[in-house]
Amino acid sequence: MSLEPVVLFFVLGLAAGLLRSDLKIPGSIYDALSIYLLLAIGLKGGVKLAEQATPGMLLDGVLIIGAAILIPLVAFPILRYLGKLKRADAASLAAHYGSVSVVTFSIGVAFLAQAAQEYEGYLIVFLVLLEVPALVIGVILARYGAGQVRWGRMLHEVFFGKSIFLLLGGMIIGYVAGPQGIEPLDKVFFDLFKGALAIFLLEMGLVAAGRLADLRAYGVFLIGFGIVMPILSASLGTAVGWMLGLSVGGTMLLAALYASASYIAAPAAMRIAVPEANPGLSIGAALGVTFPFNILIGIPLYYWMAQTIHQIGA
């Protein structure tokens, strides 16, 4: 399958940053695109939820979240003892990799649309639900045995920060309005989605190029971790998706969710809860290594993994 065209905009931005082009996306446009994408994804998920919600989804949700909790618990000892990172840095990175990326999810959805592959729309719900457990575990790992945690401020940042608030708000509006109620907004929020995502990825490429310098201190280890950890997480997601009876598309999206690393909600929460952690390491690994790996190689790989496990299990 050919490379998803929107991904090429990320490559263009990355090349511009590495070649020190004077290309810049104004901050106000980046903010507006962020709000648009988060609302559009939330609305689409809410509509899908209104169409597909069943009592059985509750048990699926418990299993999906329960399995996802393993990711930061596996990542932390690897970072702490194999990577020799400080406790705070290892805990912060584990939280970033246990959390999820809304942009990676969006590219996964665009990939499935290009492949004409259906998926379970209610998986959008886990963009919200999977953020919280990883962040809480990251704080516990950082503070185990010493220190104080400002839980109130951290949880406020998690639940009322822009990303979660807009996703959750859009999902509620989409669920309440349903497919027919949202139809008048289709042209704005659904038809223009891929164009907005392309410009957003252009800016993400520029940002990723700027973060590569942060990886120098732990270069080889963090680059390896940023590639191997998503594959391990995606393998877990593929197995869980298949065991739950998700479609090939749904299995791939769950794998992509597990494999993604947060660079929006997690940095904001860790800055408050674990201020001694170096944000350059976590954002550099998540945005400079894992994000480009996932959108260039990971998502096609996870799609292949989902197809393969369904063929074997058939």
TrEMBL record:
It holds the Pfam family Sbt_1. InterPro entries: Sbt_1. The chain crosses the membrane at residues 62-82, 94-116, 122-146, 158-177, 189-208, 220-244, 250-269, 281-305. This is Sodium-dependent bicarbonate transport family permease. It comes from the Bacteria. Keywords: Membrane, Transmembrane, Transmembrane helix.
